[in-house]
Structures are given as structure tokens and as C-alpha cells.
Amino acid sequence: MSKAVVGNEESLEKLKKLRISSLDGDDEDETLVDNNDNGDYMYDDKDDDDDEDQVRIGFAEKPKAQWSLLRHVFPSKAGGVPAWLDPTNLPSGRSCTCDICGEPLQFLLQVYADLSEKESTFHRTLFVFMCTSMVCLLQDQHEQWKRHPEQASRSVKVFRCQLPCANPFYSIEHPRYDGTDKPSGAGAALCSWCGTWKGDKICSSCKRARYCSEKHQAIHWHSSHKAECQKWRNSPLVSDSSFSNGSSVIPKVASSTLWPQYEIKRADEHEPEFDTDMSDDNGYANSLVPESRIDESVKSLLESFEGDDDKRSWASFQEQISEDPEQVLRYCRDAKAKPLWPMSSGRPSKTDIPKCSHCGSPQAFEFQIMPQLLYYFGVKNEVDSLDWATIVVYTCKASCDRSPAYKEEFVWVQLASQSTTACR
Fold this sequence. Notes:
Low-confidence stretches: 6-22, 24-51, 274-297, 419-424
């Protein structure tokens, strides 16, 4: 499927040599080139100025040091557990669960994206969570088209958290990034199983293990906690930082189903140097990913496209990412920014993007998650495996300061084949 477009090891070695820079909040002159040919779709303004800067793209790299993923150094990361920006006032209730199946959502990635124009956005991070069930993601496709998102049942959720420079959790001094930085205080206790959500339920026997849900408590009990609970009951009750959100180490979790953890490194995008012309009889023959790197699953995906528009869009998508095929993230917070859509079908119109549910301001594109991330997560290319073409995040243009600490934003998921997923 679409996750197979990731490049080979030689390309990975090339990426390691790139000069990496951070996501600067004041990069307001960036914009994104889109392959959209339909004026009804989101941000498809053909009369935009041509003075376009490069977007920032993210690559998944194994962290060289575990401290680089801790919350007090403000990481961008994928997989594992979130590094909560506000470690105390975490999302709760239905916000933590899939609205379709009721299971706790799994952490996908987070992007540190501070903004310089407001004091309240000195620190700012966006967090993405999703249900691991493809059945739920297929249902999510119908839900995201609803005009009133407060009525939609979603399996993918995005939260925005922001803090001023002076706050209770972090020093006003810039991090040293040498492993000596420490958090300013402890955060909420986390679930012993997933290490993601607040552990507001406690094991009545040992009084140590905490859980975000009865589901995770039951799983942990049957997998390992039944044995360790007896041991913990017979030992003195001491403070355990393993499940603390304020620890200077990544908390240990019992679950073995979390996605592997990566640091997201960022760089400017390379502009492709290829011809975009396509012949009518071979719509993707000029795809920028070499034939040797398009496996049978990708060929099958291309053949599943029903029209020339999807084939053209896919080839244009491949061309745009050809210089950096291992990218897992594309970021651009600009008024003219546009997502890079892999397909022409399944895109939102302007009216499909709701206003901010907290302040009423418009929401605009900020970043998108690429299908290559599934490759790094080791998701198998099977019929029922989780898959997407792209996940696009829209955030409040005003980056409003209203409560709660974690404000839910809007996300749009484009699947690999809109026509085939509708009947799966």
C-alpha cells in the first residue's frame, strides 16, 4: 500500500548528512506547492504569488540520547509515549478515546511549533493520536465529512497546547541540550499500561499501578500485573517515578504494542528537478520514485485508482517528495499554505474545514503526516493493516488561549483509495 513508497538505505544515509534546523515560529513567509487541479478544494488558489519559500520536512531518526525526547527539551517525536507540554492538565474523558470503538487512542506523533507573535505561544506543541483499528479509520472517513464536527465521531484526534515563557513547568532559560536539563516539577501520574493518558484509576490491591481505563487495567492484569501486584503488596510503599509525567527519564510502560519511538528531525525541502508532463496512456510512468523502488503493493495501489485525476495527482505527489522520499512530516504555517495531496479524490472543500470550536476563528493547514511513517512503525502491508495516504492537521489561525489546556483541533484523513475504502 502507500506506506511502501519509503526509500532505500542509500537515501537514508543521504538524509543523515543534511543540516537540520528547528521549526521556527516566525517562518511566516513559507508556502506549500500543491498538485490540486480543482478550484473547489481547500486552498486551491491558482493566483497565489510565486515567491514561495521552502516548507519544512521531517525525518524519523532513532534518538542518539533518550533525554532528547523528554518534555523539558521540547521535542518533536513519533511513536512511544507523548512528551506532554503541560504535564498536569492532560486531556480526559472522551477526548482520550476513539469515538467509534471506545478504546483509548494511541500516540502517533507530536510537533513542537512555537509562535513568536504571541507571548502565550512561546512554547507550543501539537499532539496527534489515533485508533489502531483500520475498521474505525474507515468509519472515520464518513464522520469527517459532517458539517458540524461537534457531532462527528472521530478515530484520529489532534490537540494543541501552548504556554508563555514564564510558566510553572519550565525554566525561562533556554535548554542546554546536553542531558543536564531537568523539569521544573512533577506532572500527573500516567497509565501504567500505555504511559500516555492520565492514570486516575489506581489498583486497589497494590496501590501503585495506575490506569487510564478499565480496559488497560484488565490487559495489564492478565499480561503481567497479577504477578507483580503480589510482590508490590509485600514491599514498602515508596514513590515510583516509572509512571510519573515529571520524571527526568522516559516512563516505563507495560504495553508492548506502542509504536517504536523516533525523534523527528527537520530540514528545508529540496525542490524536485523533474519534468511533470505525463503521457495520457501511461499516467504514472514518469513517477519520480524509480521503478526499482516501487514494489508490487504500490503498483497495485496505482492500478486501483479509477480515474486519470488520481493517477496524475499520485505522480505529482511522488515528484514533489522525490528528493526526500523518506519524509514523514511536512510543515508550513502560512496563510497561503496548502497540503500536498496524494490523490485528487477525498479532499476537503473550504466549507468542510470548521472554525475553531473554542474561539470561532478560521482553521488553516499547519502540517501533514506522510504515509512513510507507517514503514518506520513496522506496520505490515496487509488487508486490515492501518494505512493512510496522508493525515492533514488544521489549527486555529489565532492559536487562541482559551481553556482547556489541550484544545482539540481538526484533522482530515485521506485514505489510499477513497472508492475502495467506502465498500471495505
